[in-house]
Design a protein that fits this description.
Blueprint: H1 4-35, E1 39-40, E2 43-47, H2 52-57, E3 62-66, E4 71-75, E5 80-84, E6 88-93, E7 96-104, H3 111-127, E8 131-139, E9 142-149, E10 158-169, E11 172-183, H4 187-199, E12 202-203
Parallel strand pairs: 2-8
Antiparallel strand pairs: 1-2, 3-4, 4-12, 5-6, 6-7, 7-11, 8-9, 9-10, 10-11
Length: 205
């Protein structure tokens, strides 16, 4: 019987050690998860982070706003308006272009299911060679899908860099589609410019 207090004390010590270990484990888990980037289906969601070359390509550029849709970009000084309407947008310069479209979804439209299906379709097309880049890309806090067409068959064929995302705007669900393009022969020359414009975007959502 005289060993009972000793045994009880040992049990309390072991229990305290286990609790401390669990708390440490939880703290470590919480801190690591908070520092990790968002992933979807095991794929990382990148955040727009232009390279020095991409930033330089639009340096001293002009601020261009799509007033009807609350979207702004920085574009090279030589780019000019082609057409700007409520749901379509067009600017360009030097043989390169930015085209934007807004598609309004019905109130009961499930954007999460649609986004997943669209992304899976893009990855399938990437395996088939249509795209050489497909990834999740967050720009100005809005997560979307970035995809770039592979090198085209002919030098004059149009090659596109695209970004799509769903957002809530003016009480509606919208699909925002942005296409930055030039012909295949000039795509390498304009590539930094196109990415720089896209990554400069500020968008209400």
């Amino acid at each position: 019987m005289k060993h009972v207090p000793l045994i009880a004390a040992l049990v309390l010590i072991v229990a305290a050690c286990n609790l401390s270990s669990r708390l440490k484990s939880n703290n470590n888990s919480n801190s690591s998860s908070s520092s990790e980037s968002e992933t979807i289906g095991g794929e990382q969601v990148e955040k727009a982070n232009p390279t020095a070359a991409q930033s330089a390509a639009i340096a001293n550029g002009q601020a261009v706003k799509w007033e009807q849709q609350g979207i702004t970009w920085t574009m090279p000084a030589n780019w000019a308006k082609q057409e700007v309407r409520n749901e379509t947008f067009g600017y360009g310069g030097g043989g390169a272009f930015l085209s934007g479209t807004i598609s309004t979804m019905p109130p009961d439209f499930n954007t999460d299911i649609s986004t997943k299906a669209m992304y899976e379709g893009l990855k399938t097309n990437q395996k088939m060679g249509k795209y050489d880049e497909v990834k999740w890309m967050e720009i100005d806090g809005l997560r979307g899908m970035l995809f770039r067409e592979s090198k085209q068959e002919m030098a004059d064929d149009i090659r596109r860099l695209e970004w799509q995302a769903y957002r809530k705007y003016a009480g509606q669900s919208q699909l925002v589609t942005l296409i930055l393009s030039t012909n295949d022969a000039n795509f390498p020359k304009h590539q930094d410019e196109l990415y720089g414009i896209l990554y400069s975007m500020k968008i209400v959502h």
